[in-house]
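Thread: quick sanity check before group meeting

JM: Hey all, I'm pulling together slides for Thursday and realized we never actually wrote out the predicted structure for the chain we discussed last week. Dropping the sequence here so it's in one place. If anyone has concerns about the input, flag it before I start.
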Amino acid sequence: MLAPFLGKLRLTWQPVDERMVRTPTNINRETRIRPMVEGDAEVVAELAMELGYPNEIEAIHRRIRPIGQTDLLLVVADASDKPVGFIQAHRVCIIEVGFRVEILGLVVSSSARRKGIARMLIGEVELWAQKIGAEVVSVRSNTKRAEAHLFYPAMGYKQIKTQAVYEKRPGGRESKKLEESEK
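JM (edit): ok, ran it. Output follows.
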């Protein structure tokens, strides 16, 4: 059965009311899920570095605007007006497996882990997937990320396969080594 929504997403989709969520380990501190904005670039670069992806702040800044204008979801978990985590997901229709949402990146600051923030971010992706009629939400995780391989099954995700990832830069330019990019 084809997904009911295969056209371009409305560019106005936003997380519902920038939901305020009380984290289970700190009931007095409110965290909200909101769209990522260009002003978040510095903190997002720091968060990406925690996963082993060094990035220039300006490079992150340049990427935020176009991502917000595509079929990708890009939101941050904001505590005290500072992002403490983010998640990025995209919608894709793969001819042999159907319409799905794939989580492309999830990171929570090491200082904010174990407070339910990753669960909130995953919940936002799942809500978006349901809203757009996706058949499944999937995520790929580097085999080196032991915590992630405990977290996703606890969230109800099942490992369905292992795979090798290959990359090549278009136009014959030399590609970064896969080990350096930690993909």
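AS: nice. Residues 16-181 form a domain with the Aminopeptidase fold (CATH 3.40.630.30). The first helix runs from residue 41 to 50.
JM: adding both to the slides.
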